[in-house]
Amino acid sequence: MWLWTCYTPHPPIILPEIGRGRERDAGSTLSGMGQLRASVERNMPDILLLLSPHAPCSRGLALTLATEYGGDFSAFGVPWPRFSIAGAAEQGERLASFLFDELPGSVARRTSVALDHGSLVPLVSLLGWTRRETPALIVANPIGLTSSEALALGRRLAGYDHRATWGLVASGDLSHKVTPDAPNGYSPLGAAFDGKVTRALAGNDPQPLLEISDDEIE
Q1: 19-38, pLDDT tens digit by residue?
Q2: Complete domains list, the chain, with CATH
Q3: Sign of the four-CA dihedral 152, 158, 163, 164
Q4: Taking Cα atoms as reference points, which of 53, 74, 59, 204 lies closest to residue 146?
């Protein structure tokens, strides 16, 4: 049974250990993440499915199953603390069998998997660095799906019925290309892309996402 789903950004700066005061510049994001965390704490699932565009990828939906996931922010100059969480490999195998009857995908099986900021930022923001009880984790990357396949994935997931309770975190970002000083450069298509994403989320409507052009995606 699905308890909840959410979409989160993943800028490391929103974590105090990384931002060191600069996180206050992202006040609205911090407020939203705080509200999400409070909701998650009231409705802690057994299993957490995390979709991250930074996870290992392949054609279709790429599931990465492990006994344990963990990582830190050494890439951002903060090697400690370290986050770790148990994996839900058995449940992931069942989910893969259910999904891949109708959708393209692959399963990678590991003993342990290192997580980067695309997974760590939402996990730490919603669960904290350490807690006695956490959900077991399944990580997947959906960027190998077409837009229509991604929509089909959502509908297929909605129909997944299992005795365990589940939560879904979709980790992602906007274009990063709307200002002249953007790290990845400016693009006039950035604002159009961001507008469609925010309209889809605000209206709980996938149609604006389906209207994103190949040029905007690129």
Answers
A1: 888 888 888 999 999 999 99
A2: 2-173 (3.40.830.10), 177-218 (no CATH)
A3: positive
A4: 59
